[in-house]
Amino acid sequence: MDWCRYRFRNVWDLTAGPAAVYEVLERAEEYPRWWPQVREVTALDEITGTARFRSFLPYELLVTARAQRRDPAAGVLEVGMKGDLEGWARWTLTERGGGTRALYEQEVEVRKPLMRRLALPCRPVFRANHAAMMRGGRRGLAAYLGGV
């Protein structure tokens, strides 16, 4: 097993419809407004940007993300990532009971040197850090959509 590789899958059930959720999720530069752990997003061009993340652990991750798929009809947003994390992340939105089921999938390899050195003993803590970030994002998005 490669202890530096991670696969995440999270499901968020939201009351807003898929079109409204997609509209918010496709504007990555606005994530820091509603997702507390996304500290900064800077657009580099129309399909590429940098993002800085920090959850409860005292380190930040910096990635450059490049849009690979934007498909509003299918409800899919996917990016490739390089930097402290290398791999991909994807949102898939489907209608569910008048709201939206937002599936977030991510497959990455940690490239940040300290995290690589601590990969084996700290893996459960790194996974918990990611889970906390995702809980913060779900709460923030739900509140943001409620106010839009």
Task: Characterise this structure.
With 148 residues, the protein is α+β, with helices and mostly antiparallel strands. 31% of the residues lie in helices and 44% in strands. The protein contains four helices and seven strands; from the N terminus they run βααββββββαα. It has a seven-stranded antiparallel beta sheet with strand order 1-7-6-5-4-3-2. Strand 3 (48-53) and strand 4 form a beta hairpin. The longest helix is centred in the C-terminal third of the chain and has 29 residues, at 119-147. It is globular.
Task: Give structural attributes.
148 residues, alpha+beta, seven-stranded antiparallel sheet, 4 helices, 7 strands, globular
**Biggest sheet layout:** 7 strands, antiparallel
Specify the overall morphology. Answer: globular
Beta-strand percentage range: 35-45%
Main β-sheet, spatial strand arrangement: 1-7-6-5-4-3-2
